[in-house]
Each structure stands twice: as C-alpha cells, then as structure tokens.
Amino acid sequence: MELAPLFEPPYVAVIFTSVQAEDALSEGYGQTAARMLELVADQPGYLGVEMAPGITISYWRDEDAARAWRAVVEHREAQRMGREQWYRSYRLRVATVTRERAHDTD
Amino acid sequence: MELAPLFEPPYVAVIFTSVQAEDALSEGYGQTAARMLELVADQPGYLGVEMAPGITISYWRDEDAARAWRAVVEHREAQRMGREQWYRSYRLRVATVTRERAHDTD
Asked: I need a labelling partner for B34 at 20 to 30 A (CA). Which of A4, A31, A81, B86 fits?
C-alpha cells in the first residue's frame, strides 16, 4: 500500500469500491488496470492514487479534472469492460476533501 | 470486500489510509480494530464502512457525527495506540460526498 502525500484542500476524491466477477482475471483485467494507471498519471489535474484490493481512490485538483478523465476514450472502453465483465458490483462516490492530516514516524 | 450501499449525498466520507508498523500484530491491533468496528456501528450518524488492507473509509451523515466519533474515549485511546505503535504512517482525509452511483449485476 503506497500512501499519497497530502494535497491542498479543497480537492476531489473519487472513491471506487468493487467486487470482481469470477472471470475477471481471465479477461485482460490486469493489463487494462496497469494501462489505466499509466494513462491517468498524465491527466491534467491528477494528483495521485491510493489502492488496495477492492478500493481505488484517485485524487484530483477539481471536479472538472475528474470528469475529463471519465471521458477519455480509452478509459471509457475500460469502464465498459468493467461493467460488462470484470465487476460483479461497484460503487463510485465523488467527494470534496475539506480537511486532511498525516502521521509519519520516519 | 463488502460494499456499502448508496446513501443520500451530501454525506461525509472519512478516508483513512495507512502503512502498519512491523510490530502491529503483536500489540493487540486486531482485537482493538474489531472492537472499534463494533463500537462505531452504534454511533449516531454512522452510515457504513468499506475496508481493504490499508484503507478504511467510514461514512457519516455529517461532519458533526464524524467529529463526535473521533472524540469517543475508547476510540481516542485506540487512536493513541495507532500513532504510537501500530502505524508507521497514515493519512486521514475528511470529504463531502456530492455524487454517487452503483452498478450491480445480481
């Protein structure tokens, strides 16, 4: 688990939580997920991501930046595959981060 | 991974992301984590939680509800143990959820 740094509120968090379908691994999921991580890093207004199995949180400068990523053609195709094949269920929540703090021991 | 249902925006998401210290398992972490899950479910304004290794997102009706949970004595003690022993690093972000959607195939 790699933590994202703190950013400067207000900014946007897109919280994606999911349960994979049983055939997720057989249908190119891993390859597409890696490609999306590569692609998202180049998006204007992208701040960072935190991921654990079943939860991906991406951070954005503002709602427009998050919305623009959602509309990227290659990402739209991945979203379609997600709905049709990879995910049994998911939730997508768009939130505005208002406060944050960090604790680091090293 | 258990997904939370949709709630009614606006509501509050408290995003806690962490890297555990090496001695986390030896110091009562699991027991306290289970107790906190039990305790949080009784808090006024608590909506739900989504958890994966290293990420816990709790959902609240409003900021006051989230703040009140932070002040609960037994939770404060757990927070102290977290800072002093269990977590090498963590981030805590408080966010207001403005939009949400779900996809379910069954």
From this structure: A4
